[in-house]
From TrEMBL:
Organism: Lentinula boryana
Main location: mitochondrion
Annotated localization: Mitochondrion membrane
Protein topology in the membrane: Multi-pass membrane protein
Disordered: annotated span: 1-25
Similarity comment: Belongs to the mitochondrial carrier (TC 2.A.29) family.
SUPFAM superfamilies for this protein: Mitochondrial carrier
Gene3D superfamilies: Mitochondrial carrier domain (1.50.40.10)
Protein name in UniProt: Dicarboxylic acid transporter
Superkingdom to which the source organism belongs: Eukaryota
Coiled-coil annotated spans: none
Protein backbone atom coordinates (compact mmCIF):
# COMPACT_ATOMS: atom_id res chain seq x y z
CA UNK A 1 0.00 0.00 0.00
CA UNK A 2 1.44 3.38 -0.99
CA UNK A 3 1.90 6.19 1.49
CA UNK A 4 -0.50 8.37 -0.51
CA UNK A 5 -3.38 6.04 0.36
CA UNK A 6 -2.79 6.20 4.15
CA UNK A 7 -5.19 8.58 5.84
CA UNK A 8 -3.43 11.10 8.09
CA UNK A 9 -4.38 11.04 11.79
CA UNK A 10 -7.28 13.30 12.68
CA UNK A 11 -6.40 16.32 14.80
CA UNK A 12 -8.85 18.79 16.35
CA UNK A 13 -9.04 22.12 14.55
CA UNK A 14 -7.16 24.98 16.13
CA UNK A 15 -9.38 27.21 18.26
CA UNK A 16 -10.25 30.44 16.56
CA UNK A 17 -12.10 32.54 19.12
CA UNK A 18 -11.47 30.68 22.38
CA UNK A 19 -10.58 32.97 25.27
CA UNK A 20 -7.44 31.80 27.15
CA UNK A 21 -8.22 30.45 30.59
CA UNK A 22 -5.73 32.88 32.12
CA UNK A 23 -7.85 35.84 31.04
CA UNK A 24 -10.51 36.60 33.69
CA UNK A 25 -13.93 37.99 32.88
CA UNK A 26 -14.13 41.76 33.24
CA UNK A 27 -15.09 42.83 36.75
CA UNK A 28 -18.49 44.51 37.04
CA UNK A 29 -18.29 48.21 37.76
CA UNK A 30 -19.64 49.03 41.24
CA UNK A 31 -22.86 50.97 41.57
CA UNK A 32 -22.72 54.70 42.49
CA UNK A 33 -22.16 55.16 46.23
CA UNK A 34 -25.13 57.54 46.52
CA UNK A 35 -27.70 55.05 45.21
CA UNK A 36 -28.74 53.83 48.67
CA UNK A 37 -29.26 57.39 49.90
CA UNK A 38 -31.53 58.19 46.96
CA UNK A 39 -33.55 55.00 47.48
CA UNK A 40 -33.97 55.72 51.20
CA UNK A 41 -34.96 59.34 50.49
CA UNK A 42 -37.67 58.24 48.06
CA UNK A 43 -38.99 55.66 50.53
CA UNK A 44 -38.90 58.09 53.46
CA UNK A 45 -40.76 60.72 51.42
CA UNK A 46 -43.61 58.26 50.81
CA UNK A 47 -43.83 57.17 54.46
CA UNK A 48 -43.16 60.65 55.92
CA UNK A 49 -46.78 61.24 57.10
CA UNK A 50 -46.62 58.03 59.18
CA UNK A 51 -43.26 58.94 60.72
CA UNK A 52 -44.43 62.49 61.39
CA UNK A 53 -47.54 61.19 63.13
CA UNK A 54 -45.45 58.81 65.26
CA UNK A 55 -43.27 61.71 66.47
CA UNK A 56 -46.32 63.85 67.25
CA UNK A 57 -48.02 61.01 69.12
CA UNK A 58 -44.91 60.79 71.31
CA UNK A 59 -44.67 64.56 71.82
CA UNK A 60 -48.35 65.45 72.28
CA UNK A 61 -51.38 64.15 74.08
CA UNK A 62 -52.87 62.47 71.01
CA UNK A 63 -53.78 58.84 71.63
CA UNK A 64 -54.68 57.47 68.20
CA UNK A 65 -52.80 57.62 64.92
CA UNK A 66 -55.90 58.28 62.78
CA UNK A 67 -57.06 61.10 65.07
CA UNK A 68 -53.58 62.64 64.95
CA UNK A 69 -53.56 62.49 61.14
CA UNK A 70 -56.99 64.15 60.99
CA UNK A 71 -55.87 66.84 63.41
CA UNK A 72 -52.83 67.63 61.25
CA UNK A 73 -54.92 67.90 58.07
CA UNK A 74 -57.55 70.00 59.83
CA UNK A 75 -55.04 72.52 61.24
CA UNK A 76 -52.42 72.64 58.46
CA UNK A 77 -54.04 71.05 55.40
CA UNK A 78 -52.68 68.09 53.44
CA UNK A 79 -49.34 69.87 53.15
CA UNK A 80 -49.11 69.63 56.93
CA UNK A 81 -48.53 65.88 56.59
CA UNK A 82 -45.15 66.74 55.07
CA UNK A 83 -44.00 69.21 57.72
CA UNK A 84 -40.28 68.87 58.35
CA UNK A 85 -39.65 66.78 55.24
CA UNK A 86 -36.41 68.67 54.52
CA UNK A 87 -35.08 67.24 57.79
CA UNK A 88 -36.05 63.75 56.62
CA UNK A 89 -34.18 64.34 53.35
CA UNK A 90 -31.09 65.58 55.19
CA UNK A 91 -31.14 62.55 57.46
CA UNK A 92 -31.50 60.05 54.61
CA UNK A 93 -28.88 61.68 52.39
CA UNK A 94 -26.38 61.62 55.26
CA UNK A 95 -27.19 58.56 57.38
CA UNK A 96 -28.65 56.24 54.74
CA UNK A 97 -26.24 57.16 51.98
CA UNK A 98 -23.35 56.53 54.38
CA UNK A 99 -24.70 53.23 55.67
CA UNK A 100 -25.24 51.68 52.22
CA UNK A 101 -21.81 52.84 51.05
CA UNK A 102 -20.09 51.63 54.25
CA UNK A 103 -21.92 48.29 54.05
CA UNK A 104 -20.64 47.57 50.55
CA UNK A 105 -17.11 48.63 51.49
CA UNK A 106 -17.23 46.52 54.66
CA UNK A 107 -18.33 43.48 52.65
CA UNK A 108 -15.31 43.95 50.38
CA UNK A 109 -13.04 44.22 53.41
CA UNK A 110 -14.48 41.01 54.91
CA UNK A 111 -14.57 39.15 51.57
CA UNK A 112 -18.34 38.82 51.82
CA UNK A 113 -19.44 40.05 48.40
CA UNK A 114 -20.40 36.64 46.98
CA UNK A 115 -23.96 35.28 47.29
CA UNK A 116 -22.60 32.42 49.41
CA UNK A 117 -21.10 34.73 52.03
CA UNK A 118 -21.84 33.48 55.58
CA UNK A 119 -24.46 35.30 57.61
CA UNK A 120 -21.98 36.28 60.35
CA UNK A 121 -19.82 38.17 57.85
CA UNK A 122 -22.86 40.02 56.50
CA UNK A 123 -23.94 40.85 60.05
CA UNK A 124 -20.45 42.13 60.92
CA UNK A 125 -20.39 44.26 57.78
CA UNK A 126 -23.78 45.69 58.72
CA UNK A 127 -22.57 46.47 62.24
CA UNK A 128 -19.51 48.29 60.90
CA UNK A 129 -21.68 50.29 58.52
CA UNK A 130 -24.15 51.15 61.28
CA UNK A 131 -21.40 52.45 63.56
CA UNK A 132 -20.01 54.75 60.87
CA UNK A 133 -23.42 55.94 59.64
CA UNK A 134 -24.68 56.54 63.18
CA UNK A 135 -21.85 59.01 63.77
CA UNK A 136 -22.12 60.73 60.39
CA UNK A 137 -25.92 60.93 60.44
CA UNK A 138 -26.40 62.13 64.02
CA UNK A 139 -26.83 65.84 63.13
CA UNK A 140 -29.40 64.93 60.49
CA UNK A 141 -31.23 62.76 63.03
CA UNK A 142 -31.51 65.69 65.48
CA UNK A 143 -32.66 68.09 62.76
CA UNK A 144 -35.30 65.62 61.54
CA UNK A 145 -36.73 65.02 65.02
CA UNK A 146 -36.86 68.74 65.83
CA UNK A 147 -38.52 69.70 62.55
CA UNK A 148 -41.11 66.94 62.79
CA UNK A 149 -41.99 67.56 66.42
CA UNK A 150 -42.01 71.37 66.34
CA UNK A 151 -45.70 71.91 65.55
CA UNK A 152 -46.75 69.52 68.30
CA UNK A 153 -45.29 71.91 70.91
CA UNK A 154 -46.86 75.05 72.35
CA UNK A 155 -46.04 78.12 70.20
CA UNK A 156 -43.71 79.60 72.82
CA UNK A 157 -41.57 76.43 72.90
CA UNK A 158 -41.17 75.93 69.16
CA UNK A 159 -37.83 76.23 67.39
CA UNK A 160 -39.49 77.69 64.27
CA UNK A 161 -36.76 76.49 61.92
CA UNK A 162 -37.40 77.41 58.28
CA UNK A 163 -35.78 74.29 56.85
CA UNK A 164 -33.05 71.73 57.59
CA UNK A 165 -30.11 74.04 56.83
CA UNK A 166 -31.57 76.83 58.97
CA UNK A 167 -31.90 74.29 61.79
CA UNK A 168 -28.31 73.14 61.38
CA UNK A 169 -26.83 76.65 61.31
CA UNK A 170 -28.92 77.87 64.23
CA UNK A 171 -28.02 74.87 66.36
CA UNK A 172 -24.31 75.57 65.87
CA UNK A 173 -24.73 79.32 66.41
CA UNK A 174 -27.12 79.19 69.40
CA UNK A 175 -26.14 75.95 71.13
CA UNK A 176 -22.58 75.36 69.99
CA UNK A 177 -21.09 72.67 67.73
CA UNK A 178 -21.41 70.10 70.53
CA UNK A 179 -25.21 70.19 70.08
CA UNK A 180 -24.77 68.18 66.87
CA UNK A 181 -23.55 65.23 68.97
CA UNK A 182 -26.55 65.03 71.31
CA UNK A 183 -27.70 61.46 71.80
CA UNK A 184 -24.92 60.12 69.61
CA UNK A 185 -24.33 57.07 71.85
CA UNK A 186 -27.87 55.62 71.71
CA UNK A 187 -28.12 56.62 68.05
CA UNK A 188 -24.94 54.72 67.11
CA UNK A 189 -26.01 51.68 69.15
CA UNK A 190 -29.39 51.57 67.42
CA UNK A 191 -27.76 52.10 64.00
CA UNK A 192 -25.46 49.13 64.62
CA UNK A 193 -28.42 46.88 65.50
CA UNK A 194 -30.56 48.18 62.64
CA UNK A 195 -27.98 47.74 59.91
CA UNK A 196 -26.67 44.41 61.17
CA UNK A 197 -30.22 43.07 61.04
CA UNK A 198 -31.79 44.94 58.12
CA UNK A 199 -29.05 45.11 55.47
CA UNK A 200 -27.43 41.78 56.30
CA UNK A 201 -30.69 39.85 56.52
CA UNK A 202 -31.91 41.27 53.20
CA UNK A 203 -28.78 40.02 51.43
CA UNK A 204 -29.04 36.67 53.23
CA UNK A 205 -32.72 36.15 52.43
CA UNK A 206 -32.30 37.28 48.83
CA UNK A 207 -29.42 34.83 48.23
CA UNK A 208 -31.38 32.03 49.93
CA UNK A 209 -34.48 32.65 47.80
CA UNK A 210 -32.48 32.80 44.57
CA UNK A 211 -30.88 29.46 45.44
CA UNK A 212 -34.33 27.83 45.27
CA UNK A 213 -36.15 26.99 42.01
CA UNK A 214 -39.11 29.17 43.00
CA UNK A 215 -37.61 32.66 42.71
CA UNK A 216 -35.83 34.71 40.07
CA UNK A 217 -34.08 38.04 40.56
CA UNK A 218 -37.24 40.11 40.22
CA UNK A 219 -39.64 42.24 42.26
CA UNK A 220 -41.30 39.19 43.88
CA UNK A 221 -37.96 38.02 45.27
CA UNK A 222 -37.04 41.56 46.40
CA UNK A 223 -40.40 42.02 48.13
CA UNK A 224 -40.19 38.70 49.97
CA UNK A 225 -36.59 39.28 51.08
CA UNK A 226 -37.30 42.84 52.25
CA UNK A 227 -40.44 41.70 54.11
CA UNK A 228 -38.38 39.14 56.00
CA UNK A 229 -35.61 41.69 56.61
CA UNK A 230 -38.09 44.17 58.10
CA UNK A 231 -39.39 41.53 60.49
CA UNK A 232 -35.88 40.57 61.61
CA UNK A 233 -34.87 44.23 62.07
CA UNK A 234 -37.97 44.98 64.18
CA UNK A 235 -37.31 41.98 66.41
CA UNK A 236 -33.59 42.69 66.88
CA UNK A 237 -34.11 46.40 67.62
CA UNK A 238 -37.12 45.94 69.91
CA UNK A 239 -35.19 45.31 73.18
CA UNK A 240 -33.02 48.40 72.67
CA UNK A 241 -36.07 50.53 71.86
CA UNK A 242 -38.02 49.31 74.90
CA UNK A 243 -35.11 49.82 77.31
CA UNK A 244 -34.36 53.27 75.89
CA UNK A 245 -38.00 54.33 76.30
CA UNK A 246 -38.22 52.94 79.84
CA UNK A 247 -35.06 54.74 80.97
CA UNK A 248 -36.03 58.04 79.32
CA UNK A 249 -39.53 57.99 80.81
CA UNK A 250 -38.54 56.84 84.30
CA UNK A 251 -38.04 59.19 87.24
CA UNK A 252 -36.85 58.94 90.82
CA UNK A 253 -33.67 57.63 92.46
CA UNK A 254 -31.92 54.89 90.51
CA UNK A 255 -34.36 55.13 87.63
CA UNK A 256 -31.59 56.00 85.15
CA UNK A 257 -29.80 52.69 85.79
CA UNK A 258 -30.18 50.23 82.94
CA UNK A 259 -29.63 47.25 85.25
CA UNK A 260 -32.24 48.49 87.74
CA UNK A 261 -34.74 49.06 84.94
CA UNK A 262 -34.21 45.54 83.59
CA UNK A 263 -34.53 43.94 87.03
CA UNK A 264 -37.75 45.80 87.82
CA UNK A 265 -39.31 44.95 84.46
CA UNK A 266 -38.27 41.29 84.69
CA UNK A 267 -39.80 41.00 88.15
CA UNK A 268 -43.08 42.67 87.19
CA UNK A 269 -43.61 41.64 83.56
CA UNK A 270 -41.36 38.71 82.70
CA UNK A 271 -38.68 38.32 80.05
CA UNK A 272 -41.00 39.13 77.13
CA UNK A 273 -41.29 42.78 78.24
CA UNK A 274 -38.47 43.61 75.78
CA UNK A 275 -40.89 42.94 72.89
CA UNK A 276 -43.70 45.22 74.06
CA UNK A 277 -44.85 47.47 71.24
CA UNK A 278 -43.47 45.06 68.64
CA UNK A 279 -46.58 45.22 66.41
CA UNK A 280 -46.72 49.03 66.00
CA UNK A 281 -42.94 49.11 65.54
CA UNK A 282 -43.24 46.44 62.84
CA UNK A 283 -46.09 48.30 61.12
CA UNK A 284 -43.92 51.42 60.92
CA UNK A 285 -40.63 49.81 59.88
CA UNK A 286 -42.00 47.22 57.47
CA UNK A 287 -43.25 49.53 54.68
CA UNK A 288 -40.09 51.62 54.91
CA UNK A 289 -37.85 48.54 54.60
CA UNK A 290 -39.82 47.18 51.63
CA UNK A 291 -39.85 50.53 49.83
CA UNK A 292 -36.12 51.09 50.38
CA UNK A 293 -35.04 47.76 48.89
CA UNK A 294 -37.59 47.70 46.06
CA UNK A 295 -36.52 51.22 45.07
CA UNK A 296 -32.82 50.39 45.39
CA UNK A 297 -33.13 47.31 43.18
CA UNK A 298 -34.99 49.31 40.51
CA UNK A 299 -32.36 52.07 40.64
CA UNK A 300 -29.66 49.43 40.14
CA UNK A 301 -31.53 48.10 37.12
CA UNK A 302 -31.74 51.64 35.79
CA UNK A 303 -27.98 52.03 36.16
CA UNK A 304 -27.41 48.71 34.37
CA UNK A 305 -29.69 49.85 31.54
CA UNK A 306 -27.91 53.17 31.08
CA UNK A 307 -24.51 51.45 31.08
CA UNK A 308 -25.74 48.95 28.48
CA UNK A 309 -26.72 51.93 26.33
CA UNK A 310 -23.16 53.25 26.57
CA UNK A 311 -23.72 55.99 29.12
CA UNK A 312 -20.76 55.39 31.41
CA UNK A 313 -21.34 58.45 33.60
CA UNK A 314 -23.15 56.19 36.11
Amino acid sequence: MSKSNVNPPLTPPAPTSQVPSSVAAPKKKPYPFWLGGVAATIAASITHPLDLTKVRLQASGDKRMLASLQKTVRTAGVRGLFDGISGTWMRQMSYSMCRFWAYEESKKLLDATSPSAPAWKLGLAGSMAGGIAGLVGNPGEIVMVRLQGDFAKPPEKRFNYKHCFDALFRMVREEGPSSLARGVGPNVFRAVLMNASQLASYDFFKATLLATPYFDDNIYCHFTASFAAGTVATTVCSPADVLKSRIMNASGPGSSSTIATIRTALANEGALFVFKGWVPAWMRLQPTTILIFLTLEQLKRGVDWTRAKGWEAL
